[in-house]
Amino acid sequence: MTPPSPDIKIATDTPIRAPSPVPVDDAVLPFEVASLDLRGRLTRLGPGLDDILTKHDYPPAVGKLLGEAIVLATLLGSSLKFDGRFILQTQTDGPVSFLIVDFQAPDRLRAYARFDAGRLKPGQDSGALLGHGHLAMTIDQGPDMSRYQGLVALEGGTLEDAAHEYFLRSEQIPTKVRLAVGEEWRGGGDGPRHTWRAGGMLLQFLPKAPERARQADLHPGDAPDGVVQHTVEEDDAWVEGQSLIATVEDVELIDPDLSGERLLYRLFHERGVRVFAPLPLRAKCSCSRDAVSAMLASFAPGDRAEMVQDGKVEVTCEFCSSVYEFTPSEAGVE
Ligand SMILES: [Zn+2]
Fold first, then answer.
1. How many CB atoms lie within 10 A of CB 27?
2. Is 249 helix (H, G, I), strand (E, B) or coil?
3. How much distance in Å is there from the Cα of 332 to the middle of ligand 1?
4. pTM
5. How many separate helices (H) and strands (E) can be counted in the chain?
6. How many A from CA of 151 to the centre of ligand 1?
7. Distance 208 CA to ligand 1 centre (A)
8. Residue 17 class from Cβ within 10 Å (0-12 exposed, 13-18 middle, 19+ buried)?
9. DSSP string spanning 177-229?
10. What is the pLDDT of residues 216-254, one digit of tens each?
């Protein structure tokens, strides 16, 4: 049985013949290396990411993890058409027990994380922060379309590991993902200013002949000693693709002075790389006073009455921290 595909393949737009050397933030850059049958996307996030993470004032480790999840969601969700929606969420037993990234096509991003500050320790990587549980990816292409959900177990690994597991098991498309998040300090008139930046790359091997897409398993399994392991010879083009993406440094993915086009050229120039038009991204929550009011109206009268504090009802949007205030009568409290 073939699982429904979340359609992460790339549309063949008109390629840009003369790529801009100027770095563009908050965008996804689709690309193709035709000679190796590789397709991919490169995400660069600056002010949009900073806006999402700064509104919550997360501890650095939590901000970094949520940043990685945001980059991953942009790499996977940016091919959705029209009013499609891609939601990535994790539910786990680690210090960060829940995180959600909501990407609404064509360009809107919002996200938040829940964490237990008492369980944060220095040096925890994303795997340690998440712990065990699962990662769910939901694609909603509108009311007339069926929803698709993909699930991956999280077992102490990173989000990159989870993405590889997902593509190996569910999509069976040879895929490599790189995610990087960094904090930048820049001097200014009123002292150094802190900002978040992130970048990521998705690389996929999509040969016309399906037998070329064979993949080595992520885990060699626990065969008894002396048993000859069945080894899979990967296609030379995919071996080369993987070795190229493995050379990408975190600093290259987040460097504000290195354009996406230059980074792609640096990696693939010997094979020829075609870069397509960038897809812009922005941090924008979809909450509104009307939507919060409708949510309040759906509560039982007793629950609404319990929400009254100091003579008013206050509701905070978990995504963007906007606070909506209602009088008891506006909130439907008798
Ligand atoms: Zn909001």
1. 22
2. coil
3. 22
4. 0.87
5. 9, 15
6. 26
7. 44
8. exposed
9. EEEEEEEEEE--TTS-EEEEEEEEEEEEE--SSGGGG----SS---PPTTPPP
10. 765 555 556 666 666 778 999 999 999 999 999 999 999
